[in-house]
Amino acid sequence: MLLIAVLIPIAGSALIFSLGRKGRRIRRWIAITSTVATSVFVCLALLTEPGRSYVLLEFTPRMTIAFQLDGMGTVFAGLIAFLWPLAMVYAFEYMEHEPSENAFFGQYLLSYAMTLVIASSQNLFTLYFFFESLTLATVFLVAHGFSRRSVYAARKYLYYSLGAASLGFLSMISVLVYSDTTAFVYGGIPALQQAPHTMMLLLFVLGFFGFGVKAAVFPLHGWLPTASVAPTPVTSLLHAVAVVNAGVFSVARLAYYVYGPTLISGTWAQTLCLSMAAFTILFASARAVHEQHLKRRLAFSTISNLSYMLFGLMLLTPLGLKAGLLHMIFHSLVKITLFSCAGAIMVQTGRQYVQELRGLGRQMPIVMTVFAFCAVELVGIPPFIIFQSKWALVTAGFQSGHIVGILGVVVLLISAGFTAAYLLKPAVTAFALPLERRAGEKRDPGWQMRTLFFVMVAAMLSLVLLGKPIADYLTHMVGL
User: Can you give the pLDDT at residue 433?
Assistant: First the structure.
């Protein structure tokens, strides 16, 4: 089931590229059929093949391309399987206003396959190979349309990713040198615990930044706001959920399944990584307050929230891991919806800046109501889902006993204030009197965009009651 799920979007992508300029209906039928079929097979694999391993290629006994849906892989794979069909339907309406639909939908499907392989990687070699392949699969999505700004954003994304790839490569090679396997083991690969301690810590830090580039940790964050020039289906799914979460997911693999908490905990390496995550939270939140372009403001918000996750992970405790993963799930639901609202505003009105949202709630009541709801969610007001994940992070920080972990709790509280400033203010002013006397005609988008809004709001409201079962599920699936 898992291999079929990976192959379907690759085959769908090849079919779309073979169409040339013919048939929008055929192209969209292939895209949605491939996406839904992939998600169905992912769900079947989650139900019927948990823990089953597939070896696709074996270069040497220590260098194999192998897949396995363990507990953590199940969490990430299930998340993208839920979100991708909704994002695809949204993209159908959005891309009516954009050129080169074949290239877009072909690459969108290919990105699904790469992200799914990252989620189901059985070892570090496989994870690294497809982590870098995801860069190549998504760089042309950032450059879509090939305007000067798009090409600049794509080049910046590529330079950051490939530059950091060398750091991840050194970390991966160290595992090959000091161990006879790169297979993930919760608690860390045993052989690495016997390797030179200082060397292992240095190589872990290199891996943290090498894989953390996609999680936009400071100072490797600069590509993400620039990439907001890409079409909104790219920024909403790939650069607010799939690509960036792949970075968080890979850091979690490195910390808990390769080097191990025992090796890193209480060392300068943990202190450095925790400090960088805490600094990124504060820095990006402050930048979001001052950023006036709506999508760039949301991009800085994403940078901040990704480091919420990294902060939880680098506490190196079971509670920290659970809190980080919980925030990854809940933030993904909220942020894909916020970016989708921003895309609908841009398509329907041409407005791109925060100050232009004044009074827009009268023209786009559905979109701006959803935007306001998600703003309240992301601030972390109880009992909504982001409050639950932030509370878990605060609790994990206090219980960690690490000085940076405790100081990080203060950073989380300050960041919540910044979040209220950069999201609640535009949400409220959207329902103020418009700058013009006449409100204008209704401009809410069509059913394809609205489908994502309604499903995501329903999911977020449902999870208010299901937050604890989700946390308990993470505890069980990750094996804490």
Answer: 64
